[in-house]
């Protein structure tokens, strides 16, 4: 059994959900009543976002690498970042990390491939939607990634940063996000949606009526982590 180190606090609500899902997923796999060994390092989200917004990717990498080192010093043997946004520097981090890191992007691709998806919409922060993190993995392996148009990106990012990261889930925002999804489905012909922000599944629950699969990247990430921990 490997000890998992989790970079959390980015944002707190999804970190809580990660921990809850880790416990539940582990207990489904290991039916002896035990809990998985998890170490959480809750970092300052605003520091990370400020650096990413300034396109200071070397500084983002150094900041997150130092926080991963704290997990290693505490005994973590495998790590993950409980958020999509910092995956804009995932490859750089993996090269610097002394422990293997589990990529939310790679794990999500594996699920999309199993579902035979060919053209997926991506929602998340502006940093995630405009980065190469998802296209660099998906497109070269045969799955096209489509993002909303500029105005819809601004809407999604604005609601994400002003409401979702604060734990506010308003019905009118849910309706607005579903409208963005519908435009992607009708205009772009997507056959799936990547919820590329780990707060998004907290507001977009029970969406079977949309007619295409929603990929809950946080849950997918957790399942991949438990699989890795169990070896």
What is the gist of this entry?
This protein is an alpha/beta fold. The chain has helices at 12-29, 45-53, 57-73, 90-96, 104-114, 126-130, 133-138, 150-162, 171-188, 200-203, 217-230; strands at residues 4-8, 38-42, 78-81, 119-123, 144-146, 192-195, 214-216. The chain is 53% helix and 13% strand.
Characterization of the model:
The structure is a single chain. By secondary structure, the chain is α/β, with parallel strands linked by helices. It is built from 11 helices and 7 strands. The protein has a 4-stranded parallel beta sheet with strand order 5-4-6-7, with helices on both faces. α1 links the parallel β1 and β2. α8 runs antiparallel to α9. The model has no long low-confidence stretch (mean pLDDT 95).
Q: How large is the share of residues in beta strands?
A: 5-15%
Q: How many whole angstroms does the radius of gyration measure?
A: 17 Å
Mean pLDDT: 95
- Spatial gap, N to C terminus: 7 Å
Q: What's the overall geometry?
A: globular
Largest sheet: 4 strands, parallel
In DSSP terms (H or I, runs of 4 or more residues), the helix count works out at 11
SS class: alpha/beta
Poorly predicted runs are: none
Q: SSE order, as H and E? A: EHEHHEHHEHHEHHEHEH
- Sheet with the most strands: spatial strand order: 5-4-6-7
The percentage helix is 40-55%
Give the strand tally: 7
Q: How would you classify the quaternary structure?
A: single chain
